[in-house]
């Protein structure tokens, strides 16, 4: 039996790592929103007496610690879900008070705090997408990943999806270790995993995936995106011009954020209008331009949006996510060289 040196050890990606990360940031985002709504509705009460004030960031830290203890002490998919949920709620409680950590006055209502929170969860979403992106794995990493799934079988049972994942990971591997993992999985009990809620959710997801590929739906969403970028840009420019002339922002708004957002939203409008012009004859170019507008919005505009509008800014995100899904689906539906072929027909 050959040994493996420390320098040659590999980091093996968990098959459900992306799902666990998604649960973490969904729980975190939900916690921030629920906490803000609760505190606003109850008049921002304090937990403690005249001397002490127990900040909810402390409870967040304790929940994150609890998640770590579970993951370091127990094994299995259920424990990982508990870790993700506990850690996500704890992260939400912790980051909700970021305004106190970055200001000398311990200002919970520091306006850029909302943008900081947005950046954190945006980074987590990107990490989740990266974790879910298929990558080439070495034979050893594939074997380890399959063994990790199979190891949960005796205690929890294996779902049909887990068995399929094991077989796919071990495809083409005829070594003794691979045969042992397959045999171990075969001897494990079967877990009939899906409950009624998850089955309905999967059906809705399948229907949604089908919907975003329909040409009429795609055209409507793109048209709404273009019109909305132009309309919102006009609104922000009309607000920014008086501010540049020496005026002041309305109470509860940030003048600097409004001016900056007017600039980035103008860039978005230029990209979307150009994309709309190219939509019929140069579809791939149009999609790239529309995605560029989305990139500007999600990476720059939303920072100013959250600074100015605080958490009301989240109302714009569902539509932007829908546009991203539609454009991503349209990209996959465009065969390589389709744009050149269309240009040739038009010449």
From TrEMBL:
This is Uncharacterized protein. Keywords: Membrane, Transmembrane, Transmembrane helix. The keyword Translocase does not apply. The chain crosses the membrane at residues 21-41, 53-71, 78-95, 115-133, 216-237, 257-279, 286-304, 310-330. It comes from the Bacteria.
């Amino acid at each position: 039996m050959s040994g493996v040196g420390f320098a040659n050890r590999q980091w093996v990606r968990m098959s459900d790592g992306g799902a666990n990360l998604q649960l973490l940031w969904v729980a975190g985002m939900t916690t921030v929103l629920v906490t803000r709504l609760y505190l606003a509705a109850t008049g921002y009460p304090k937990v403690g007496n005249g001397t002490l004030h127990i900040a909810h960031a402390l409870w967040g830290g304790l929940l994150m610690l609890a998640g770590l203890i579970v993951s370091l002490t127990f094994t299995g998919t259920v424990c990982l879900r508990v870790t993700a949920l506990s850690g996500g709620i704890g992260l939400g409680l912790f980051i909700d008070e970021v305004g106190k950590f970055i200001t000398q006055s311990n200002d919970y209502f520091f306006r850029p705090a909302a943008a900081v929170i947005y950046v954190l969860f945006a980074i987590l979403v990107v990490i989740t997408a990266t974790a879910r992106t298929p990558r080439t794995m070495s034979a050893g990493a594939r074997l380890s990943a399959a063994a990790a799934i199979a190891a949960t079988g005796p205690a929890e049972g294996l779902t049909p999806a887990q068995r399929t994942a094991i077989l796919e990971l071990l495809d083409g591997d005829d070594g003794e270790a691979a045969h042992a993992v397959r045999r171990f999985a075969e001897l494990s009990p079967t877990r009939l995993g899906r409950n009624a809620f998850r089955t309905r959710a999967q059906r809705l997801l399948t229907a949604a995936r089908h919907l975003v590929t329909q040409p009429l739906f795609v055209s409507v969403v793109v048209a709404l995106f273009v019109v909305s970028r132009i309309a919102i840009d006009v609104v922000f420019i009309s607000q920014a011009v008086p501010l540049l002339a020496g005026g002041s922002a309305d109470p509860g708004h940030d003048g600097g954020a409004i001016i900056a957002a007017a600039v980035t939203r103008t860039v978005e409008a230029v990209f979307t209008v150009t994309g709309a012009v190219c939509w019929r004859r140069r579809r791939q170019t149009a999609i790239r331009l529309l995605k560029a507008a989305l990139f500007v919005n999600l990476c720059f505009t939303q920072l100013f949006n959250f600074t100015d509008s605080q958490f009301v800014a989240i109302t714009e995100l569902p539509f932007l996510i829908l546009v991203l899904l539609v454009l991503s689906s349209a990209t996959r539906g465009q065969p390589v060289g389709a744009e050149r072929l269309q240009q040739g027909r038009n010449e």
